[in-house]
Amino acid sequence: MTWLPHLTATLNAIALVLLLCGFALIKSGRRHLHRNVMLAAVGTSGLFLLAYVIYHATAPIFEFRGTGAVRPVYYTLLISHVVLAAAVTPMIAVTVWRAVSGQFAPHRGLARWTLPIWLYVSATGIVVYALLYHVYI
Hints:
This protein is mainly alpha-helical.
């Protein structure tokens, strides 16, 4: 299962790109494409979550090996990432529910908060992965 962290980082990157595309699409008034892309982002994030849970349920904890100034940076990113990931998950569910049930004004209001947090969580997930598995300082 050592390949799962690489898969989760890839899924995080795909979700990040889909979120940015979805944002651009809604800003350009292309609602139908926005809907499809955002549902793809939700599906990709769902696959990420499944792979993440499977990996962490079956693998030993991988310890951060960085030293010096990068160590507090890594742990600050990790803590903010985990806390905001836990917070944004129900926000995503409610945002999607409001959209699919036609409650567009409340959807927009919550999406203004959900999107930047979700983008941050996706981006920091990639940075945490890179620091944990590819940067040896």
